[in-house]
């Protein structure tokens, strides 16, 4: 195998370029891993300090308020029913009291 | 091997090596992110679990408190209805006593005096009534005296007190030495009725099932 000087020089140049590409690619690979680490840190930070808990609490509190409002609605209806019922029976109740007040045990 | 072959060989080997560690870097990046996601999921699960338990407790407490407040409101409404009954009853009693003998109040008053005297020991009594009732009683006093004597089984003395009683109606009967007395006014009856009739009136007003 015999080469001209020029050819050898080209070959060395080619090898040098390959080396440069290799180093650059290595740097890019490192960057990919660094980016992944940064992303991982963000994911974990988000889990630790993210607003999802606040969102969950807000959602639950809203649900509780809804249930309370429903309860109040039901009780308001009960109160109205009660007042209506008592209004109709007021006369009977008054008569019962009058009978009791007038009652004498001899 | 020709120079071109050597050149090509250099490129191929370089490409292969680059691809190899680029792939490795990609895979490792994937593993890093995947592990982080796993860890994040565990953190989230733990946090949401404990917060969730906290919220369930909060929900139970809030709803229990709301129910207590609302039940209190219902009790207040019931009390208000009962107050209304007694207020109306008092108005009705005032009308009855104003009617005097027409509404049968004279008989009721006589019975109240007899009952009061029967409930205290002694044979000498002072009857206190309001000025209007004094006029009603004066007419029936002898009859009342006889009835009390019948119950006591002996002679009794009875007289109307001088001090006017502030009352809707009814009487307070004292022994003549003023040591013992029995309050048989309508006010006292109303007070007793409030205690005694609470259950009955609730049933009349609101029914058995509330």
How is this structure best summarized?
With 106 residues, chain A is an all-alpha fold.
Poorly predicted regions of chain B: none
**Which strand-content bin applies to the residues of chain A?**
under 5%
Task: Indicate the CATH topology of the domain at 93-198 in chain B.
Answer: hypothetical protein PF0899 fold
CATH architecture classification of the domain at 93-198 in chain B? 2-Layer Sandwich
Separation of the first and last Cα atoms of chain A: 146 Å
Count helical runs of chain B.
5
> Biggest interface and which pair forms it?
A-B, 60 and 74 residues
**Looking at the chains present, what oligomeric state does this protein adopt?**
heterodimer
H/E element order of chain B: HHEHEEEHH
Q: In angstroms, what separates the terminal alpha carbons of chain B? A: 105 Å
- Compute the gyration radius of chain B: what is it? 46 Å
Tell me, what's the shape of chain A? rod-shaped
Largest sheet of chain A: none
List keywords for this structure.
heterodimer; A: 106 residues; mainly alpha; 2 domains; 2 helices; 0% strand; B: 210 residues; alpha+beta; hypothetical protein PF0899 fold; four-stranded mixed sheet; 10% strand
